[in-house]
Amino acid sequence: MLPRRDLYPGYDVLAKRDSPSWNAKTRAVLDERLRIGPETRRFFDEAEWPTIKAIADRIVPQPVDRADPVPVAALVDHKLATDTRDGYRNPELPEEREAWRLGLTALDAEAQARFGARFHELGTWAQDALLKSAEVGELTDAAWAGMPSNLFFHKRVLPDVVKAYYAHPTAWNEIGWGGPASPRGYVRMDFDRRDPWEAAEAKPGREDEAYEDNLLVGR
């Protein structure tokens, strides 16, 4: 796990909820996402759930002191439960839900064969070793049922997990993003300039100034 590094002190994107920066659609989408808790599960079964959570922890590890961690696995589960598809896929991959079921079963099989335990039971070094092997297509257990492990990693694991992380307000606060559908628009487009409704990045020695500025965002 990583220590917290707060580049946007005092910034809370949710303070913009009722400001002119957001519209009704943005508020509705965010309300739906915020109802998803870390253990919200409708698609993955009891065997798959700890595996997807362990994968999410390795792809997007979060600070240990974060009070409101992004429920990454639950957001991926929500995407699959609602059958929200990308609209395209590699022809060597099955459809998204089948690909995830195959991939999680196969990773557990590979973990058992190489280390004698399920994927979520392994230490981080062993988990990373398996994911790196999947990344380059070196995992070929029969449980993959012909699905290339590198395609599963690059076309399902990375995009689904990373997009889930950055779809959440906690991640938006981390990177100082104001959220989608900003009716105000952006005017100050030059380097190192920002509109007053954007988050202020903490400069060395000027953290207090950024904190004060960020408390005003959304007002």
TrEMBL record:
It comes from Methylobacterium phyllostachyos. Residues 198-208 have a biased composition (Basic and acidic residues). This is Gluconate 2-dehydrogenase subunit 3. Residues 198-219 are annotated as: Disordered.
